[in-house]
Amino acid sequence: MIYDTLQILKEQVEAYFVETGLGKIIALDNIALWESGSDDATKVEDKVVMTLVRLEEETTLKNVPSYKITDNKTEYFNPPVNLNLYVLFSGNCDTYDKSLKGISRIIQFFQGKKVFTLANTVYNRTNVSLDVLDHFKFILEMYSPGFEELNNIWGTLGGRQLPSVIYKVQIIQIKQDKKLGASEVITHVGGNLKDIQ
């Protein structure tokens, strides 16, 4: 679901960039490649690059009971893992002003559309991974790290900073329907109660 979410976001943002005249310059890749000198570095040249920089478990949803009742049987499952993703959008365009325009368009797009669901999102369903999605919902909000945290992020990614913005993608649910066990549903309590003296 992590790849699926990022691919859907990439397609949505890219469609907006084409609509506003910036073209297909969105890349879902690791921005740390841009100064690596490797052959992969060309994939992020003259692009606005989406990079996953952090995963975080949403602990507030951890204690939700995870079972379902079908045909008078209770089936137990491990609870799903709910994640928040932190996605860095970096303007690595050939000119500084084009990079700034790209980051501005990212902010404009997510200001206009913060909630993504199956009903309000058009995406490429022929992608092997995306054709099995029967539901999804995630919400984006801008994340503003302090100077020190931003310096640490870019230090980890290779040094020099690019014009960028970070968005927190809330709640990605990863769930495997692997049954842990099943039992009959308790529908009534029988027997006699005796006085306890």
In short:
This protein has 197 residues and is α+β, with helices and mostly antiparallel strands.
Q: Main attributes?
A:
Pvc16_N, DUF4255 domain-containing protein, single chain
Structure description:
This protein has 197 residues and is an alpha+beta fold. It has one domain (2-184). Helix content is 23%, strand content 31%. It has helices at residues 2-19, 96-112, 147-156; strands at 26-28, 47-57, 67-70, 73-77, 81-92, 115-117, 137-143, 164-174, 179-184. Strands 1-2-5-8-7-6 form a 6-stranded mixed sheet. It has a 3-stranded antiparallel sheet with strand order 3-4-9, with no helix packed on it. The relative contact order is 0.22. The model has no long low-confidence stretch (mean pLDDT 81).
Number of helices: 3
The Rg value, from CA coordinates, equals 23 Å
Beta strand count = 9
* Amino- and carboxy-terminal Cα gap: 59 Å
Strand sequence of the main sheet, in spatial order?
A: 1-2-5-8-7-6
Q: What's the rounded overall pLDDT mean?
A: 81
The domain count comes to: 1
% residues in beta strands? 25-35%
Q: Biggest β-sheet: count, sense, barrel?
A: 6 strands, mixed
Shape: elongated
Q: What structural category characterises the helix and strand content? A: alpha+beta
The helix fraction, in percent, is 10-25%
Low-pLDDT segments, ≥5 res: none
Which series of helices and strands comes N to C?
HEEEEEHEEHEE
InterPro entries: Pvc16_N
Organism: Maribellus comscasis
Protein name: DUF4255 domain-containing protein
Pfam family, one: Pvc16_N
